[in-house]
Structures are given as structure tokens and as C-alpha cells.
Design goal:
The protein has 515 residues and is mainly α. 66% of the residues lie in helices and 0% in strands. The protein has helices at residues 2-13, 30-49, 58-79, 92-108, 112-119, 123-134, 149-152, 164-179, 185-188, 194-202, 209-225, 230-248, 254-265, 274-284, 297-310, 315-324, 331-347, 357-368, 373-380, 386-394, 396-413, 417-433, 435-442, 446-452, 458-478, 500-506, 508-514.
Length: 515
């Protein structure tokens, strides 16, 4: 048993063949060798479970950046392709691919790193893509041959430009690019040239409302961001309005441009610079004479009142312009003018408008005594305003001789019952202001009445017309090829007032009684 026990001990002390616990060479002692083997085994196990460390490869990163840049440039090239969007059956695959590329470009702008690495280095290509898409001949919307909303009172569905869904993404991309912080002033201003701004402003004449909204937002953001280009942008806008005033008389984007100008005007410092006063007198005031100004009158009124809030003295030239450019035979525009006239009077200085009182009251009396009920009612509202009544009291020596005889006559003979009641009430107000001046105005000498009359005497007008007719006959005798100029307020023109043709058609009862 002693021998067998000894053999067992000997076998237990021998190392097992292939075991990981084998002692390393150079170790001394059985106990030391065994501990070192256990520690090594645990470290080897940990090392085996760990994943191998990734080694950075500069070449692979460069290749990835190059691939992303090439993909971005390819998308730009796809977006430059043009198609016939009016025909939906042709190039359907190419159009779909182009829409996808535009959407991808918009998503790129949400990643700032991609913008810095791909968009900004290729800014020239980006601007070329934008210019090629938006700078194009503007399409004309085909209007239905039926009656419009003004005749039927029913709003008709507007036709949408078939190319707009493909352009909207480009405009959105351009807007987000301007708002992006990576697109700095130094990088952008080189592409915003006078030619670019001129072409961009011409796009405001588009009949697509959504496009004009994008154009307005983009131009406003460009003006806010590119301080060195502000003067150039203002000059280009001025030129567009001068063209509207003196040449075209119609411009679809006038309201949007005036919205931008309103934001610019509100930031003007006080006192106003000479450049800004010149803009007010040469652009804002003459815009009132444009035939289509009722389509942008709300924005024009806002710009006018913003200027007056900066400098009250500008109310005088604005009043002169309003009275000078007063509309003729356009009741809607005339109503708008009356609205603005009252607002201007409320901010004007009473002691400085004395020289305009005769023209002002002559115009109001013509509106009250006119044939259009809405205009007459709007003009009567002036006498409900306390500030206007103070003007009337201040200048009653001039106003009463013109106003009182007309109001008294209309209060007795006006054809509309409700307005006649208002005229009777106005007659009472005028009498309460100054009874003596009221009676004096009614009993004015015939010689003085001529100085205060509102309308021209028909007999005097006929005498002048006969005089001009005789002169024309004498000229024709000396020069048989002479053609009489086509003048307003003559027998050949259908206008109210001194025209016999108008009397025959519109005022038959009066015309017959005169015969």
C-alpha cells in the first residue's frame, strides 16, 4: 500500500501532455511554475475573446469622400436636365430620377459636415444648377374664356404650372442654402451679381403665386445676409418699379417686392437719408398712378405710412401726389384713394396743408356729388373723423363756400334716401360749426362763386369747345392734311360731365328736358 501511494503521488506531480498549465522554461520550483501557468491561461483566454483592433486606413477615407463628392456632382448634373413637363407621357423615368435627385440634395443640407465637404467646395456648380432651372421664359397661364370672379362672384380654380413641382424643390434647396451657416457672405457674394439680381427680379412677374412667395423669401434672406450687396439690390428693385411706372403698367410681383421694401423701410434710421427721400418721391408716390395699383395697394399704403412714421413732413408731397394722380372712371381705385387720403390727413400737420385745402375739398365734393353710391358714402365718412373736422374748422373760410352750397342742394335732391339722411345730418353739423359762415356761403355773390365753384359751368364749357372747333377749321383751311388731336372731354368721347353723347345714353330724362 505504501508503494501504491508513492506511485500515485508521482503521477499527480507530472505535467499533463498538451496542457495549458505547463510551466514556462526558466521557472524554478513546482509551486511557482504552477501559479504562473494559471495566470497565463487566464490572460490568454481574455485575449482570445477580444475582437481585433481596427486600424485606420487614410486611403479608404479619401476614397469614401471622393465617392460622396462624385455622387453629389452627379445629382447636380441630373437636376440640370430639362424636360417637357406639359406632356406627362414623355421622359417619365428621367423626370422621376430628377425629382429624386432634387429631394436628395435637400436632405444633404441637413448634414452640416456634408455641406462643408461637398456643397461649399462645389458652390459654383450648385449656383449653375439653380440658375439653369429658375432662369427661364415665364409661362402664361391659359385663362378660361368664361366670366371671371368679378362677374360671377364664384372663385375659379387656378391652373398650376406643370413644371412647378420640379421647380419647387430647387427653390427650397436655394432657400435652405442661404440660411445655412456654412454658406458665408464671402462665398456667396461672388455669385450674386447685378446680372443675377436683374434676372431674379424678372421672375417676380410669374403668374404662379407659390413661386413669387419663394422669390420674396429668397430675396429677403439674401438682402439680410449679404450686407455688401444691399445697395445693389435696392437699386435693382428701384429699376423694376420705374419700368412698371413708365413702361409696362403691369407687374405680377409688385406686391411681393413692396413687402420686402416695407421690411427694409422699417429699418431705416432717422433722420432719413437723401437717397431714401428720393426713393419715396420718385417711386412710392408715382406708383399710385399705375393703372393696376389696386392689386398691390395694401402693400403700397403700408410703405407710404412707414415713411410718414419716419418723417411727417413727407405727408405734403404724398398728398400732392394723391390729388394729382386721382383715378378716373375706376370706382374701386377711387375708394382705395379715399382710404389712404384720410390716413395721410390724420398724421399730417394742419398748419402746413393750407395751400392744398382748395384741391382737397374740391375732390371730396366731387366724390360726394358723384353718381357712384359707394364713393359718395366713403367720402361722407371723412366728416365722422374728429381730425378732419378740426381741419374743416381751421380752414372754414376756404372750405365753406365750396362745400355748403353743394351739401344743401344734395340734402334736398339726392336720389338715395339713406345718403340723403346723412347729407341732412352733415348740413346740420356745418351749420353748428359756424352759423354765420354757413349763411354767408349760401348767399355768396355771383362774382365770387366762380372762384369757389367745383364744376365748370356748362355754358362756359360749350363756348370754349366752339372756340376750339373754329380754330381747328381755320387750321384745316391752311393745311388740308391736318388731323385734329384726339382729346378727352369732347363729343367723340363717352365720358361724364360735359359730353352730349353721355347725356343721350345715361341721362336721357335730363337731356330731353333740356331740349
Amino acid at each position: 500500500s505504501t508503494q501504491s501511494t508513492w506511485d500515485f503521488i508521482q503521477n499527480m506531480s507530472r505535467p499533463i501532455s498538451g496542457s495549458k498549465g505547463t510551466s514556462k522554461p526558466g521557472t524554478t520550483g513546482a509551486g511557482t511554475g504552477t501559479g504562473t501557468s494559471a495566470t497565463g491561461a487566464s490572460r490568454t483566454a481574455k485575449t482570445a475573446t477580444k475582437a481585433p483592433a481596427k486600424q485606420s486606413n487614410p486611403e479608404s477615407k479619401t476614397e469614401a469622400k471622393s465617392t460622396a463628392r462624385e455622387a453629389f456632382i452627379k445629382k447636380l448634373q441630373i437636376c440640370m436636365n430639362t424636360y417637357n413637363y406639359a406632356d406627362e407621357s414623355t421622359d417619365a423615368k428621367g423626370k422621376a430620377e430628377r425629382l429624386t435627385a432634387i429631394n436628395d440634395l435637400q436632405s444633404i443640407l441637413s448634414d452640416q459636415k456634408t455641406v462643408i465637404s461637398n456643397v461649399i467646395p462645389n458652390l459654383e456648380g450648385v449656383m449653375d444648377m439653380i440658375e439653369k432651372n429658375i432662369f427661364r421664359p415665364l409661362p402664361n397661364k391659359k385663362k378660361s374664356p368664361g366670366l371671371g370672379m368679378s362677374e360671377t362672384g364664384i372663385e375659379q380654380e387656378e391652373q398650376v404650372d406643370p413644371s412647378w413641382p420640379h421647380l419647387q424643390g430647387v427653390y427650397e434647396f436655394f432657400l435652405q442654402l442661404i440660411l445655412n451657416e456654412a454658406a458665408d457672405v464671402k462665398g456667396m457674394k461672388g455669385f450674386i451679381t447685378p446680372q443675377f439680381i436683374q434676372g431674379f427680379l424678372e421672375l417676380f412677374d410669374s403668374e404662379e403665386n407659390y413661386e413669387r412667395d419663394y422669390l420674396k423669401n429668397i430675396l429677403h434672406k439674401l438682402y439680410a445676409k449679404l450686407v455688401p450687396r444691399r445697395k445693389m439690390i435696392r437699386k435693382a428693385i428701384n429699376d423694376s418699379f420705374l419700368t412698371l411706372i413708365h413702361e409696362n403698367h403691369k407687374f405680377n410681383g409688385a406686391a411681393e417686392l413692396l413687402d420686402i421694401l416695407a421690411a427694409i423701410i422699417s429699418g431705416f434710421a432717422v433722420p432719413l437719408r437723401e437717397e431714401h427721400i428720393s426713393f419715396f418721391k420718385q417711386i412710392i408716390i408715382p406708383l399710385h398712378k399705375v393703372q393696376t395699383c389696386q392689386f398691390f395697394f395694401e402693400q403700397l399704403l403700408r410703405c407710404s405710412m412707414l415713411f410718414l412714421s419716419k418723417d411727417r413732413s413727407l405727408a405734403i408731397p404724398l398728398l400732392q401726389g394723391i390729388l394729382k394722380y386721382w383715378p378716373f372712371a375706376n370706382y374701386l381705385k377711387e375708394t382705395l384713394f379715399l382710404t389712404e387720403l384720410l390716413e395721410i390727413l390724420e398724421v399730417s400737420e394742419v398748419d402746413k396743408i393750407g395751400f392744398l385745402i382748395p384741391k382737397l375739398f374740391k375732390r371730396l365734393i366731387k366724390c360726394i356729388s358723384g353718381n357712384h353710391l359707394q364713393i359718395a358714402d366713403k367720402a361722407m365718412c371723412f366728416f365722422e373723423n374728429d381730425f378732419f373736422l378740426s381741419i374743416l374748422k381751421t380752414y372754414k373760410e376756404v372750405a365753406f363756400p365750396m362745400l355748403v352750397p353743394v351739401i344743401v342742394k344734395l340734402a334736398e335732391t339726392h336720389w338715395h334716401n339713406i345718403l340723403q339722411e346723412s347729407l341732412i345730418a352733415l348740413k346740420t353739423i356745418l351749420k353748428e360749426i359756424d352759423p354765420y359762415a354757413f349763411d354767408q356761403a349760401l348767399n355768396l355773390d355771383p362774382a365770387k362763386k366762380k372762384d369757389f365753384r367745383v364744376d365748370q359751368d356748362p355754358e362756359e364749357r360749350k363756348r370754349l369747345d366752339d372756340k376750339w372747333a373754329k380754330l381747328a377749321l381755320e387750321v384745316k383751311k391752311k393745311n388740308p392734311t391736318f388731323v385734329e388731336p384726339d382729346m378727352p372731354f369732347t363729343i367723340r368721347h363717352l365720358v361724364c360731365g360735359y359730353n352730349e353723347l353721355y347725356a343721350k345714353i345715361y341721362d336721357k330724362e335730363k337731356f330731353v328736358s333740356l331740349q
